[in-house]
Amino acid sequence: MTSLGAFVKLWGMNLLDQLKKITVVVADTGDFESLREFSPTDSTTNPSLIFAASQQPQYQSLVEEGIRYGKSKSSNQVHHALDKIFVNFGVEILKIIPGRVSTEVDARLSFDVRGSIDKAHQLIALYKTAGIPKERVLIKLASTWEGILAAKQLEKEGIHCNMTLMFSLAQAIGCAEAGATLISPFVGRILDWYKKSEGVPGYAPSDDPGVKSVTHIYNYYKKFGYKTQIMGASFRNKEEIVELAGCDLLTIAPPLLEELKKASGTLLRKLDPAKAKQSPIEKLNIDEKTFRYLLNEDAMATEKLSEGIRNFAKDIVKLEKIIQAKINNH
Question: Which of 30, 140, 238, 269 is 20 to 30 A distant from 157 in Cα terms?
Answer without folding.
Answer: 30
